[in-house]
């Protein structure tokens, strides 16, 4: 894939919780609607189930616009929670999950 066609990377911040989700929602929606996107959770130090809600919304926005969204570095606890909620198949984990 050429540099021009490479997916952009969105790092949503160090905390994704019910308190911070609203602040992250719009930025992720804009980026997901604009082109292929990798959401990078590598720097996230605290997250709850609202992070999964954000991922689902950003994925919906990307797909509606004809773009792909993948997830990088999702904390193990959220990967497990996505399996419990049976939504892991809806998310594209870089390198598998």
């Amino acid at each position: 894939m050429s540099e021009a066609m490479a997916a952009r990377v969105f790092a949503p911040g160090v905390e994704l919780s019910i308190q911070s989700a609203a602040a992250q929602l719009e930025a992720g929606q804009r980026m997901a609607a604009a082109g292929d996107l990798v959401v990078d959770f590598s720097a996230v130090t605290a997250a709850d189930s609202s992070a999964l809600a954000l991922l689902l919304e950003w994925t919906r926005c990307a797909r509606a616009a004809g773009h792909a969204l993948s997830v990088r570095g999702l904390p193990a606890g959220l990967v497990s929670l996505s399996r419990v909620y049976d939504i892991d198949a809806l998310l594209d984990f870089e390198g598998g999950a």
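Residues 3-89 form a domain with the Transcription Regulator spoIIAA fold (CATH 3.30.750.24). Strands lie at 8-10, 15-16, 37-40, 46-47, 69-72.
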